[in-house]
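Tutorial handout. Part one gives the primary structure; part two gives the three-dimensional structure as tokens.
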Amino acid sequence: MEKVFRLVPKIVHYGCMVDLLGRMGCLKEAYDLIMGMPMEANAIIWGSFLNACRVYNNDELGEVAAKRMLEIDPRNSWSQVMLSNIYVEEAKYDRSMGLMKEIKEKRLKKSPGCSSIEVNGSVHGFLVEDNSHPRYNEINSMLEKIEKLMN
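Part two.
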């Protein structure tokens, strides 16, 4: 990128590569890229990597990612919940139960899931179980119609 386009890769470029490598199941390559970055990986990069570890049931690298995420944001339990899910998928129930107990003991909080969409230049954000959007009923009705079409 630097030689051909004379652009110095920024953290967002590394994040995209980690996400792509993770989606392809190239977890070692994604991890090596993270470790070779000229800047510290942020929670977004570690989260993307942890999600790939969950998809491909790699608890070894998942533990590394979860640990790094906990270092970045010690009050957020998302990484521990994801790691617990990896353990469940691998039938490591003792480890999963231990993590869930630790989350409760430390009183860690899980942020609600969210998504956003841009329509005509305006960004609309949605949280799990949030019905405060002014067009909530219309949006929900459309989602139900789409779901019926898919089934």
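Part three, for discussion. The first strand starts at residue 114 and ends at 119. The helical segments are 2-5, 11-23, 27-35, 43-55, 59-72, 78-89, 93-105, 136-150.
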